[in-house]
Each structure stands twice: as structure tokens, then as C-alpha cells.
Description:
Layout: E1 14-28, E2 35-43, E3 46-52, H1 56-63, E4 68-78, E5 81-91, H2 108-120, H3 125-134, H4 138-146, H5 160-178, H6 184-193, H7 198-201, E6 202-203, E7 209-210, H8 212-216, H9 219-233, H10 239-251, H11 267-291
Parallel strand pairs: 3-5
Antiparallel strand pairs: 1-2, 1-4, 2-3, 4-5, 6-7
Amino acid sequence: MSRIFINKFEEGQRISVPFLIKTKQLLSFKSKPGKFMHLILGDKTGDIEGKLWEGAEEAFSLLNDTFVANIAGEVVRYRDSLQLNIFKIEPCQNYSPADFLPESPKSRDEMVVELQQLIASINNPYLASFLKELFADEKLYHNYTLAPAAQHHHQAYLGGLLEHSLSVAAICQALAKVYPAIDRDLLVVGAIIHDIGKIDELSFTDVINYTDEGRLIGHIVIGAQLVSKVFDKITVFPESLKLKILHMIISHHGQYEWQSPKKPKFLEAMILHHADMLDSQVDKFLKVQEKAGEDSTWSPWIKGLDRYLYLS
Length: 312
């Protein structure tokens, strides 16, 4: 049976599902000795207050740094708001990140099929073997299809990395039709892998956050290291092609002030940078438009874009 999310709670319901613990604190009873636990619980649809009246101190010590807990309780109404009267709470190890994090509006299953078709379209045997070796790692492949593209800025939801990479690949394929001199296969492979370091730069099990590796090294270097390890497993691969793939990862931010170790130094690397930038900017504009009211002419000041947007 599928879980009931917070936005569908009704008074009197009894539930037993994992919740994200956003805050927890022990508070003293006003009229008797002892303490109860007050929590703010969340899932991808919203937040709800929860209170554990019995055994609170023991439960609090068991939770420690737990972010997700299995909670059984009853939905009650208090001062015109729904709350959760908790009967039992314990740390949870097995849960779906999709219960707590927003997901791409696109079907992940359909995007995976699109990715597989894109991989199958690569004619260059060296590039095809590279992608085969890369995605032979089942954990890496799973994380690639699940990861967000960012913490906040663009496609910041589960499946966002896959959505962004496919969109960049679509832009690249369109440009390859306009300019026959483009190495289409190389450009498409660059689109698929340019942000692959984000699978380790970001954590996305309960909230989207940066890992220690992400903060200290960043997805560009992580991606180059990951791809280099794949090359080590391939016995025959042209050195010049290897360098081009690594350069496309390292240069895709385009400018030194945008934390790019190198500027793009060949045609496909330059196009990849602009395709990457274009998709991220389009996503930002669309998100502003989606949030705006129907009668809005101008958006508020958008910090990430450094401008107002005209919405009419």
C-alpha cells in the first residue's frame, strides 16, 4: 500500500511511515515531572508538528543524529492545526529518498530509456566502449539516474542530473545538425558525462546537501578523477580522445571566475559549455515563470540571475 503524505493527512488517521526529522527537542511538562519530545516532521509535501508524550527521554537518546525515523501515531487537531500524536519512534535505515525530496517533473523511467537510446546511438567504437565501461558500475548508474543537478540553482530535485544531461545532449545534437564539422559522438558523450561528478559532490538521501568531497574538491575534479579510473580499465583507447573527454569535463564551466580550471580549447568543448549554460538558464527562467502569479508583470529581483524578469 502506498504511503499517505502529510498534505493528505486527515484528523483521526493512524499512520506508520518514515518521516524526515527537521527539528527535535525535549521539553518539560508544565503540570508534572518529566519531559516530552516535540518534533517538526517532514516529507516532500510539507511539515507537521509531532509530540511523543511517553518515553521521550529514552527515545531522544536513541535517535542521536538520526535524520529519518519510522514513526507510528495518530493525526489529531490542536488549535485548528493538524498534529501527530506519536506512539512509537525509532531510527529508520530503509526508506525511499523520493518520499522526502522533490522529483523531476519528467518520468525517470522514460528518461532512462532516452539515455539508453542515446548511448546506443554512439557510433565511435572507442566512445561506445567508454560509456559501456562507465555505466557497468551499477551503483554509479543508479546514482547518475537519481541524483539532482544542483542543491538550489537548477534541476535541484531527484532525477535532475539525468534531466539536465539529456537536455544538454539534445541541444548538442541539434547544433551538430547545423554545423557538420562538429564531432557529434564526442559532443554527445561530453553532454552525458560533463556533470557526472555531482553523484559524489551531492548527498541526496533525505535532503540535498554537499558532501565533504563536494565542498573540498567539487564536481569538476571529482568527475575527471572518476572518468580517469574508467580509462584505466580500458586497454586500448586513443590518448588524444582521452584528453579531449577529460578537457570537456574540466572546461565545461567556461570561465575561470566560474570555477573552471580551463577554458574550452576546441570546438566541441566550447559548444558543450554553452549548451550546459543554456539549459541551466532556461530552467531558472522557467522556474520563475511557474512561481509567478497570473497577474504578475514582473518578477521580484532574482538573485541568481541578477535581474527582474518580464513575465507578460
